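INFO batch 0412 | record 1 of 1 | parsing
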Amino acid sequence: MTKSNKFSPELRERAIRMVYEVREAHDSQWAAIEAVAGKIGCSAQTLSNWIRKDVAPSTPTSPATDARIKELEREVRELKRANEILKLASAFFAQAELDRRLK
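INFO prediction complete | emitting tokens
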């Protein structure tokens, strides 16, 4: 019995690229995988396996570099959250100012 490939290699590559592109918008890589898997119609575990197979052994990074990358990713997430809060506050106060002038 042969294994049928439901998904073409092109679709697999595209899905993997999509996970890397939307990774910053999610709290974890697994959340990004789940989001993309739902869009292409495969299970999250299948997509995770594709990513794991796709990741070739690259140049080793030091633990200090890995820690710095995680720290910077965390900082980016915090800044994005702060930016959203500031946008909402700005809209709130702008609306309050408009309401105050009408009275």
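INFO post-check: The longest helix spans residues 63-102.
INFO record closed
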